[in-house]
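Hi all, long-time lurker, first post. I run a small reading group and we've been trying to get comfortable going from sequence to structure in the token notation. Rather than ask abstract questions, I figured I'd post a concrete chain and ask someone more experienced to write out its structure so we can walk through it together at our next meeting. Sequence below, copied exactly:
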Amino acid sequence: MQNSHNNFQQLALIGPTASGKTALSIKVAKYMNAHILSLDSLSIYKEIDIVSAKPSEEEREGIKHFGIDVLYPNENFDVTTFITLYHEVYTQCLKDKKNLVIVGGTSFYLKMLIDGISELPTISQKAIEQTNVALQNIENAHAFLLKLDEAYMSKIEPKDSYRIEKALNIYFQTGLTPTEYFMKYPPKPTITEALPIYQIVWDRALLRKRIALRTEMMVSDGLIDEICMLEQKYSRRPNCMKSIGIKETLAYLDGVYDKKMLIEKITTNTARLAKRQTTFNNSQFEDVIKGSVEALEEMLL
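-- Answer (accepted) --
Happy to help. Here is the structure in token form:
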């Protein structure tokens, strides 16, 4: 399936963690002559290899992957990082006459690519200073904003400093409440072409067995050494150090768990994450083609 500029094809493959997305995406990419864009909040980091279950160079089978090994663990990212990555991979696909497979564990980013986000204003030094003054008392700042824009602020916790700061910046920079601002500057979708979405579905008990097996393999592949290295190099401060698999291993290193308990804790927390991911996928996307790995493979190949 070669691709000229006008018949570029793309599809998305979603599913919970440990559902077999990676292996299927590589098969599909080979068949479709495609690059892969990975939407995963851990694989995006360099040096976080075992715990993120990112595919090794061999497993990638020569398929070019975007969204893997982009940042160091002490660098932050948000949804705009993936929007930039999507534009990069799209341009590269057209240049290389390739199609695109988007594979997402963190399908919130896929949702944002489809629905779009509003461009935020450039914040002046004056507005930053006003925001910093207001943030000296976070509860008061929240109450001040709540009075101005109840619809928007009622969804934000009084201690959520990150989102309160963003709302204050918008208000002091533009004189508009967040609701007024987002009405004036509605979100622009990044993905505007057709995007078929395929969702891998598993029985929960079977998926939990797969998660348990994968966790045991991670530990035998050197998970504990990897987390020791990450902690020495980057400390426990970065956001990614609070991820599932990392936080439990740090607790093991602190003597809170033994190895058997470590494997159990990671398995349980990963299974809970899988359940949340499935709930999100089922509620956020329309016209999704669902099936087992085998059924989807048959359909796509």
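A couple of things your group might point at:
The chain has a mean pLDDT of 95.
The longest strand covers residues 34-39.
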